[in-house]
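Sample intake — Ribosomal protein L11 methyltransferase
Collected from: Rheinheimera nanhaiensis E407-8
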Amino acid sequence: MPWIQLRVTTTEEKAEQVSDMLMGWGAQAVSFLDAHDTPIYEPMPGEVIYWTNTVVVGLFDAEHPMDKVVNQLKQVSFFKGEPNFKLEQLEDKDWEREWMDNFHPIKFGQRLWVCPSWRDIPDPTAVNVMLDPGLAFGTGTHPTTALCMQWLDATVKPEQTVVDFGCGSGILGIAALKLGAKRVIGVDIDPQAIEASTANAKRNNVEGQIELYLPKDQPKDFQADVVVANILAGPLAELKDIISAYVKPGGLLALSGILESQAQSVIDAYSNEFSFDPIAVQDEWVRLSARKQA
C-alpha cells in the first residue's frame, strides 16, 4: 500500500496535542522525531519527555484527502501563522519484507550469536539466542547492546546468577542463561518490555529460569554474581543505589547506554563501591565494567 507522511514541526508542549489531531484527522500511525538532533535521556518511571523542537510525523493512506488535513492544520491557532509542515510520499514497498531482509545473525565475542527466526543458524554448535525485532529495545544491532553482549560472552560462568536491569527485549538475560547462568532477574519500567522478554524467553526455552518485574515489584534483597544495566547515563547515576545493591560483594557489574563524554560522571557515581576496568568504546558509546569491593 502506498503511503503519505505529514511532518509537523512543533514544540514539546504541543507535541501530544498535534499527535492527537493527526490521529483524529485519519493518520494510521504517529511518531515523534527530534527536529535538531538534541540528546534526550531515558525518562524515569511515569515521566514523558519530548524534544524542545519536535517533529510529529503522521502516516496516512495515499488516498486520504490530504488537502483537507492541511487546511485543518492551517486553522490551528497555536501555530501563530503558517505551520511548519511537509508532505512526503513514501515508496510503496513491502516494508516487513524489507526489514526482514536486512536483519541478519550477529556474532558477539567468541561463542555467542543472535539469530532471527527466519534465518539459518550459522553455527549450530555456538551459543545461539533466537530473537526477532519487536516492540522492546535490544536486538544486538545498537552499539550499547553489542558491548554488553561481548562482555557477557567473556564473563558469565556456569551456575551464576544475573540481573538484567532495563531488560528491554530480554536479550541480555537470555544470552546469560544460554551462556550457563542458572537464574536471571529482569527489571524494566515498560510493561511491553516485560511482555517481549517473556515471549523471547519462551522462544529460547529458558522461561523457567528468568523472572521479570516492573520496578514496583522488583526483589529488594536479591544479590547476583553479575549485573548488567544497559539504560542511559542519567538513570544509571540516579538509580545507582538500587543497581549497586543487586551486586554481591566481589560481583561484577556492566553499565552501558553511555556516551564517551558521560563516562566519567557515571564512574564517579559508582567509584566508592566498585573498581573499574578500562572503558570499552564502540561508535562513541561506551561500556563500563567493574568489580564490587568485598
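Post-analysis note: The radius of gyration is 22 Å.
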